[in-house]
Amino acid sequence: MITDPRIEWIEHPDPESWVHAVATEMEAVLAEELAARGSARMLLSGGTTPAPIYAQLAVAPLDWPKITVGLADERWLSPQDSASNAYLVRENLLDRAEVGRFEPLVREGLAMAESVHAANLEAEHAQDACLVVLGMGNDGHTASLFPGSVDLDRALDSEQPYAAMDATGCPVAGDWTRRITLTPAGLARTRRRLLLLRGQAKREVLQRALAGDDVRELPIRVMFGLGGEPMRVHWCA
């Protein structure tokens, strides 16, 4: 158990319980938002970790045509590329639930700067997200806020919801060094923030993050000072 007022730590006994609990919480948040506002918007991350959660959420009895789905970050790839976050979200959620609207971050035919501008315009005019789902790398990155990135300071200081990110030289970024990511300003506009972690190594990285305050060393630390509800961390071994 990790106890810290900046987070709510939820520990699960096995991966199946973890998937079920997160999907159930996401469903409840969306249902609450739909009841209160008549529509809902959520921002999702890619990667293999949340895929089964999205698949379970897709069968939830929600008013899906009134729900908008966006992304926390994206690799500079076509949304049709199987390595893109858009592809993973589409395969596990959008192709299974009749979602009202999807907001990709990479726009076909637009350059990186134009795509970021379009994403920021869309976010500025959109309903604030009631839910954002995030992961964390062993290097302490979240979304595409990578430690050591040449663009990290600019993204951290941005007043816009999204920023371009060049993660060249950041090993965890792999072959996909060009990214679009939520900024702290964009993350601050979300209500329920879920961090999904699996394995002892991720637990130890989070504990190290909670013990310090250098955001540039471990960018996950941006999540501790956003205000609003404490970030809820779902973990299993």
UniProtKB/TrEMBL annotation:
<comment type="similarity">
    <text>Belongs to the glucosamine/galactosamine-6-phosphate isomerase family. 6-phosphogluconolactonase subfamily.</text>
</comment>
<protein>
    <recommendedName>
        <fullName>6-phosphogluconolactonase</fullName>
        <ecNumber>3.1.1.31</ecNumber>
    </recommendedName>
</protein>
<keyword id="KW-0378">Hydrolase</keyword>
<dbReference type="InterPro" id="IPR006148">
    <property type="entry name" value="Glc/Gal-6P_isomerase"/>
</dbReference>
<dbReference type="GO" id="GO:0006098">
    <property type="term" value="P:pentose-phosphate shunt"/>
</dbReference>
<dbReference type="GO" id="GO:0005975">
    <property type="term" value="P:carbohydrate metabolic process"/>
</dbReference>
<dbReference type="Pfam" id="PF01182">
    <property type="entry name" value="Glucosamine_iso"/>
</dbReference>
<comment type="function">
    <text>Hydrolysis of 6-phosphogluconolactone to 6-phosphogluconate.</text>
</comment>
<dbReference type="InterPro" id="IPR039104">
    <property type="entry name" value="6PGL"/>
</dbReference>
<dbReference type="InterPro" id="IPR005900">
    <property type="entry name" value="6-phosphogluconolactonase_DevB"/>
</dbReference>
<dbReference type="InterPro" id="IPR037171">
    <property type="entry name" value="NagB/RpiA_transferase-like"/>
</dbReference>
<feature type="domain" description="Glucosamine/galactosamine-6-phosphate isomerase">
    <location>
        <begin position="13"/>
        <end position="223"/>
    </location>
</feature>
<comment type="pathway">
    <text>Carbohydrate degradation; pentose phosphate pathway; D-ribulose 5-phosphate from D-glucose 6-phosphate (oxidative stage): step 2/3.</text>
</comment>
<dbReference type="GO" id="GO:0017057">
    <property type="term" value="F:6-phosphogluconolactonase activity"/>
</dbReference>
